[in-house]
Specification:
Four copies of one chain form a homotetramer.
Chain A lengths: L1 E4 L5 H13 L3 E6 L4 E6 L7 H5 L4 E5 L19 E3 L2 E3 L5 E5 L6 H13 L4 E3 L17 H12 L5 E4 L6 H6 L4 E4 L7 H7 L6 E4 L6 H13 L5 E5 L17 H8 L4 E3 L1 H5 L5 H10 L4 E5 L17 H17 L5
Chain lengths: ~350, ~350, ~350, ~350
Amino acid sequence: MIIVMQLHATDEQVASVVEHIRASGLQEHVSRGSELVIIGAIGDENKLDVGRFEILPGVERVSRVTKQYKIVSRDSHPAGSVVKVRGIGIGGPQIQVIAGPCSVETQEQMDIAADAVAAAGCRLMRGGAFKPRTSPYAFQGLGVTGLEYFQAAARRHKLPIVTELMDIRMLDTFMEYDVDVIQIGARNMQNFDLLKEVGRVNKPVILKRGLSGTISEWLMAAEYIAAGGNHNIIFCERGIRTFETAYRNVLDVTAIPVLKRETHLPVIVDPSHAGGKAWMVPALAQAAIAAGADGLLVEMHPNPCDAWCDADQALSPEELKKLMGTLGAIATAIGRSI
Amino acid sequence: MIIVMQLHATDEQVASVVEHIRASGLQEHVSRGSELVIIGAIGDENKLDVGRFEILPGVERVSRVTKQYKIVSRDSHPAGSVVKVRGIGIGGPQIQVIAGPCSVETQEQMDIAADAVAAAGCRLMRGGAFKPRTSPYAFQGLGVTGLEYFQAAARRHKLPIVTELMDIRMLDTFMEYDVDVIQIGARNMQNFDLLKEVGRVNKPVILKRGLSGTISEWLMAAEYIAAGGNHNIIFCERGIRTFETAYRNVLDVTAIPVLKRETHLPVIVDPSHAGGKAWMVPALAQAAIAAGADGLLVEMHPNPCDAWCDADQALSPEELKKLMGTLGAIATAIGRSI
Amino acid sequence: MIIVMQLHATDEQVASVVEHIRASGLQEHVSRGSELVIIGAIGDENKLDVGRFEILPGVERVSRVTKQYKIVSRDSHPAGSVVKVRGIGIGGPQIQVIAGPCSVETQEQMDIAADAVAAAGCRLMRGGAFKPRTSPYAFQGLGVTGLEYFQAAARRHKLPIVTELMDIRMLDTFMEYDVDVIQIGARNMQNFDLLKEVGRVNKPVILKRGLSGTISEWLMAAEYIAAGGNHNIIFCERGIRTFETAYRNVLDVTAIPVLKRETHLPVIVDPSHAGGKAWMVPALAQAAIAAGADGLLVEMHPNPCDAWCDADQALSPEELKKLMGTLGAIATAIGRSI
Amino acid sequence: MIIVMQLHATDEQVASVVEHIRASGLQEHVSRGSELVIIGAIGDENKLDVGRFEILPGVERVSRVTKQYKIVSRDSHPAGSVVKVRGIGIGGPQIQVIAGPCSVETQEQMDIAADAVAAAGCRLMRGGAFKPRTSPYAFQGLGVTGLEYFQAAARRHKLPIVTELMDIRMLDTFMEYDVDVIQIGARNMQNFDLLKEVGRVNKPVILKRGLSGTISEWLMAAEYIAAGGNHNIIFCERGIRTFETAYRNVLDVTAIPVLKRETHLPVIVDPSHAGGKAWMVPALAQAAIAAGADGLLVEMHPNPCDAWCDADQALSPEELKKLMGTLGAIATAIGRSI
């Protein structure tokens, strides 16, 4: 921790800060310049509370120097981690595109969707049975019936399934229906009790970034899961909220190289929710792969015009197939495969 | 719903939009200008999905005209609502300042805090037993023991208590310990399952605005609670996330007059979390009352330097008392009381 | 400057940083902890470039400790400054409300406006002759003719005039027409050549905050003016750009106490541009004064419905008069006058 | 223009809106639903002022339907435009990477830089002679001497030069020194007088996006230039300001496909200023090209450690050369060349 004293701070004020540092079991290093006194607190910073130093008389500002995330930090595991889902690796040289509809609607819709996902060359499938909707009057998902349709459709192609968990009380049901990857949605990135619970199960978790989640908060949200024992975490960038109103969110591609440097865990991107329009998806998907993402989460619907939600952002099966071709060429250009 | 067609949209494209409107049981009004065709869909807009129109060929953009919140809308209840907490009205001419520590620490701390809250002239008390913390390694609150300390301290002064609920599974415990007002924190503004549950109980709810929650999303989050039957909802502005890094959040005072116009429910402000520093609290609290807020949620600790969390943002008992005096004068200036 | 080394930084890397510090004529203080090495560079920090240290091998991050603004800093002038405009003080105990129309339209409109400004008890008048408009096809202001109308109207009431300068080449004209206060608009907060020029003249300057200007950038923009010799600078908060779309900008009241602490110069607020709607202005104006602002810049039009620009945000003469009454009561409540 | 009336608006209020529409020479279309009345104003919308309708009694909200930019709109020129700079096309199938140092420092530095730019296969060169700096005490550029060094270095390789114009009064000097492409910086995106002036000369202009410039404002800023007669405009995305503090700006790749749809003009990206760190540049540059950008503006310095400004964001000559190889492969993958 570094404490910068105010201009003209007195010797007593400096002494008081030093006393507080020692009382916490750390050591101080005092640097006196012509204008400013800077005090470093050396030792286990987790024993210190920034706020308690900031209110000491004469203190200008206080900043931490060590990271508050440990298990998910690349420092703890310099080589990258590959999360395995029924034998399929996420985070390795092969890029994984997880495709499927926004919401599970009918068995037939899911069967056709699963065929299209497999035909396009994707190895995992997505679909929502429980839907977080801004309005209480919007379609909230089929629930458990949706899980049934989804599993029935996906198993015909041996596609592992990815679906969102919103309510802690449904976790047992997810285990029972053998959901392969649990998705935590953007609005739940800091639903700490939910994070703790998925930290106790042995299933890979996709952790979406909150609408205005900082990189640091996101890493700490993952640390909540990891601290429970579950290290199979996949970060998913899905666009952030900004001042721009011409599109729903701003896909933050810079997060990709930054996360890859900060954490050993895989990073994927959801270009569908980021832009909010199907016609933007190819450009955003291509950008994500070119920037180093380990995979994508893409919405595809057998017949977008009839989708029960987010109709305007789903690709058609043909569009998905075409996109997979372009992504393959880009993957090759940067030394990866798809 | 209003559908603006693209420049040069064909008659067939217009006809197709009209057909979709009729198929949904609504009526169309087509306005043909020299350059543009605009189509209005008249009837129950909730039957229409914006996305499904946006992907029709020739459509430029689609916008809703009716509000998606009904029960919380001022249209449904033109006079303002007063939420009663054990006889104390929130939303009436009298302004309510809810004060207390960030977190419950010990019985002694809570006893002194309750004395100070009452002595300052406040009529309700706040305190956290379950704490949402960004880091999994930070103090997470005393839990149920904290509720016990809190009630014991507050009852000596007959102060109704306000505390945060994070986990659905704790709701029964909150009812058992007779928590007077349930607070939903900023990070849970769109935890829809939690909102639905507090919609089923008969307790006033303080709904904090999400870190980047829009006015519209916030109103719809309240509608989730109201739709369950619980209409005793109090909005709490607590600062929003912006580009500015000189302070933690930006207190959005504009939200006060805007919410008072959009909803009949009371609006309070948390100046402590907004600014993040105790020295900013008086200015922000004064601004909130002057802008028309119905109350405040203020952090006060018997001894801020020793607080277990957010030490730098708590007022001392003396500072709270002094602030109450200034707020009283401002309340009088705008025709209210405290 | 504080340099935090990476975990596992080598002794050679530390030595290289130290060497760079010494080469710049400063002294180093090296703090070695169990995990981290932190290096302080003590001396005149302005000799150092953060970027050149950030790219040295083994460096994790670098931060400045001294402020980059000197003349405008409160450190240089602990008592507050009062800017005088023809004998009227801005920044003293008396609050100044500067009112008038968005744009100068006709001599008659300005005459009626000046009468209303004086009748409401305001002591300065605002009005735009050169207008920054987002669209090149919108009304751009009357130009020099506008200055003539404005001065003719204001002089009858001895009201000093405030008007915006957009183009460096018009500065001589402003001096010739004896504009009393030069306003630099939000879009020009970092138009550095314009700032340098107004730094060379002997006229008070109102410096509006940029749409997404940070407190720190704003202070440095003022320092550009001050460095030229003109210390008569007034900061004007006018709302910042955020994700919220329910209103034009978010009035940042927190900026008021923060600026008053950082600088000795006066701080005023423009509630009209902040909210963008006349009905929001009273609440925002009241909040600004209650939070400690030294004055306001308010739009008032003799007949808002006929205004040539921003018709929806101007108060009528009656509304202004009523607002002045409420503001007077709030000023009294916080120990000031109006 | 579409006017949505308030719930319970009276017939008189509707009639008054209609009257205002007719008075402006347009035609009204009134759509009466069970709950709402919506009025369309058909005709030349530029004759109408949104604000004047918003304050009419009974009006809920008003929105424009036509775009306020004409010349730069793709509607006016459905095929894309190629801007030619001494025979080199920007906006065609060939991607252009414009590289060079942040600021011109010495003749030797520029000579080495020009050699490296040409050796890497780039066809245009960038360099700053006039620098916009946040602090008045930072290096402000070499000025005219910088232009001389720059031209002397670039001419040896026949590289057209790109450099920033900040001050209107320097435009003649830019013409005299035969600057090939005039760059308008982010802080001047809405310096309308500067835009008007560069609209009058016959030189290509790179218009950078403002720190928080919306797509719509950016298009209208370009329209200011185009309205003066200069249609050789190149948009340059350089990252936007958001809540994230882990990197300087957020590169908005979504702006690329959206601009390509809205305007016929070329779109390039500056990955150096977006991320702010050299190690982020390859990922961001790759993302930009994969998303469809027509070119890049990249900082390269012969010896980044010695750069006079932005040392931490410049690529070395070797890094630039390597990046060009990867970009070439990505260009091929999406059917373009470099």
